[in-house]
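User: I'm writing a short report section on ligand binding and want a predicted complex to refer to. Could you take this sequence and glutathione and write out the structure as tokens? A short remark afterwards would be nice.
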Amino acid sequence: MSDTIEEMPVLYSYWRSSCSWRVRIALNLKEIPYDIKAVSLIKGGGEQHCNEYREVNPMEQVPSLVIDGHTLIESLSIMNYLEETRPQRPLMPQDCYKRAKVREICEIISSAIQPLQNLIVLIYVGEEKKKEWAQHWIMRGFRAVEKLLSSCAGKYCVGDEITLADCCLVPQVFNARRFHVDLRPFPIILRIDRELENLPAFRAAHPSAQPDCPPEVAK
Ligand SMILES: N[C@@H](CCC(=O)N[C@@H](CS)C(=O)NCC(=O)O)C(=O)O
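Assistant: Sure. The structure tokens for the complex follow:
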């Protein structure tokens, strides 16, 4: 019997961060228990910028995951590590074409939509323009995602199994609602979001269920 005590993974997370949310969903789907270390992106100018956290994540962003004695950053990279090291409840299809579709959707959301609503970007854009800016980029990206889904979606984003694309989609739809994006032009996105939102792994990862969610927002 090994006398090594496995350390519980620690996720550096902020309740409303869509990138942290993606990883929370993947951890929950794979039934990997984890502790949360909350990093407030707003308190005192943002705890992500303090020296201690910069040592964890030199990009000064969440999420970061400490697991297997390693510190990992970047949500897609973290989810891929989980997929490669914890094959239970796979989140990537077997089929190469379907895998490519999953990656396409993840890339659009994580490269062409989410970064443009990041706090540092919105501060730069300014209070007056930020809603219009966010709506523009979310709609542009969602038009592409909706088009892809029209040929690859089944019950979920790619076929009938939940994949990493679904982990990315749900938090992005939440963000779209935060910025009052008109989602009516995206019926497939809306249908898939409805399919997923009440599944236990998704509910437990929701911002309102997080330990650092302000009580006035938590359900
Ligand atoms: N590419 C990174 C992006 C991470 C990211 O943008 N995190 C946001 C929250 S969702 C953040 O920490 N923002 C801090 C800031 O803007 O100062 C990932 O996928 O992990």
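A remark for your report: The chain is about 50% helix and 5% strand. The CA atoms of residues 160 and 218 lie 31 Å apart.
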